[in-house]
Amino acid sequence: MPHLAEPHGTSADPASGRGGAARTTTTTGNSAFTVEFEAIGRTFAPTATRGPTASPPVLRDVSLTVRPGEVLAILGTSGCGKSTLLRIAGGLDSPTTGQVSIDGSPVAGIDPRCAVGFQEPRLLPWRTVTENVALGLPRGTPRAAGRARVAELIELVGLSTFAGHRPQAISGGMAQRASLARALARNPGVLLLDEPFGALDALTRLKMQDLLLDVHAQAPTTVLLVTHDVDEALQLADRIILLGRPDNDTRDGATIVQELTVPGARPRDRGSAELAELRGRLLAGLGIDRHGEARGLAATSTIPAFPY
Ligand SMILES: Nc1ncnc2c1ncn2[C@@H]1O[C@H](COP(=O)(O)OP(=O)(O)O)[C@@H](O)[C@H]1O
Ligand SMILES: [Mg+2]
């Protein structure tokens, strides 16, 4: 399983955008790209294990434009298609209908303009932190420039002391920081993060959220962040979309059922009344009432709110 969206061997050329789309250039020289989803639908073909009947669609008619440098959070219940949408954005999966464009040119295959980070750090165990981060450098990076860039990123994520360590000698939070540095080494125009902090303890998670904000302030690339954590979305995102099935009709695909712009500059006050109101709306959209209970379950139910 590749640790990152490996661009090598694809025909997509970052310089070949149609040019009309908006983009911004960040202080580190990378561009932040527009990502445009146009009427995305995804249905998986039936498999032997799933039986001969056609599977219902996973996604239906998802249309959305993510602005250059924007942080967009994607929320939704477990299994509703968040990862599928993210994979489609990076060319790791293809939509059945519709199209995704980055910087005005269609995504066709694994896209070198994107870097992907997952819930697990996916580091190579026999390589040091430095060597793992270096794996993210674009192919053809001159040796000296690559070395300098890797050292800079390792410092950015606070791992300078551990640069020579192997993954088993560092904590889970550190491994996830190394993984983030590796994704950034690509200088991605679009950073795709799939529940990147989901496996971390609460405190480490908060620190990683702050780190992501620092990283984004320094190199404001476009970020698509899948999360099941409403507070994380409210803390990090400019805008939040909620994927779901209208009327919970499981025969139909998930689409955007809520979209909201998060007010206020980051870092935001986690205790603000304004955010509390948005939290309530998002939780209701996820089918969770204010007491953290899934709707439709008995009040005495011990089933926790997670996974949403
Ligand atoms: N390669 C695949 N083949 C068949 N079904 C898939 C595949 N990938 C995802 N699915 C199905 O699509 C649905 C959405 O999955 P996913 O996007 O991983 O959800 P989420 O990330 O929101 O939890 C699930 O029902 C899952 O089983
Ligand atoms: Mg997922």
UniProtKB/TrEMBL annotation:
It comes from the Bacteria. GO terms for molecular function: ATP binding. Signal peptide: none annotated. SUPFAM superfamilies: P-loop containing nucleoside triphosphate hydrolases. Residues 1-30 are annotated as: Disordered. Transmembrane segments: none annotated. The keyword ATP-binding applies. Keywords: ATP-binding, Nucleotide-binding, Transport. PROSITE patterns: ABC_TRANSPORTER_1 (PS00211), ABC_TRANSPORTER_2 (PS50893). Pfam families: ABC_tran. The keyword Chaperone does not apply. Residues 35-270 form the ABC transporter domain. InterPro entries: AAA+_ATPase (IPR003593), ABC_transporter-like_ATP-bd (IPR003439), ABC_transporter-like_CS (IPR017871), ABC_transporter_ATP-bind (IPR050166), P-loop_NTPase (IPR027417). This is ABC transporter ATP-binding protein. It comes from Cryobacterium sinapicolor.
